[in-house]
Amino acid sequence: MAAQQSQGIQTLLEAEKEAAKIVQQARQYRVQRLKDARAEATKEIEQYKQAKEQEFRAFESSHAGTTSTAQTAVDKETEEKLQAITDSFRQANDAVVKKLIDRVVLVNPELHRNLKKVEA
């Protein structure tokens, strides 16, 4: 009976070792699957990133002409406004200088309203 118990214990130990091997293989398989999933996700992210980058470049190149056209229009409008301001300055320059000189030269001496006349 002791031999039979010993053999039963031996069988249990072998079964336990076999179960530990299976569990270890399952863990290794799970770890490998996680690594593969991460690598695949990284690859998909990179592909998506490249696709969006190309899409952005295409959008940018299609709208680049619009930007230069708008800049040209703004430059032209600015130039026209500057020319109008310069013309206005030239036309009113003499009149403004004359008014300033007249105001500086024209002196109307008066007593201040708070000053009372002192009778001597």
TrEMBL record:
GO molecular function, one term: ATP hydrolysis activity
PANTHER family noted in UniProt: V-TYPE PROTON ATPASE SUBUNIT G (PTHR12713:SF11), VACUOLAR ATP SYNTHASE SUBUNIT G (PTHR12713)
GO cellular component: vacuolar proton-transporting V-type ATPase, V1 domain
Species name: Asterophora parasitica
Name of the protein described by the UniProt record: V-type proton ATPase subunit G
Start and end residues of each stretch annotated as Disordered: 57-76
Residue ranges, compositional bias (Polar residues): 63-72
NCBIfam families: V_ATP_synt_G
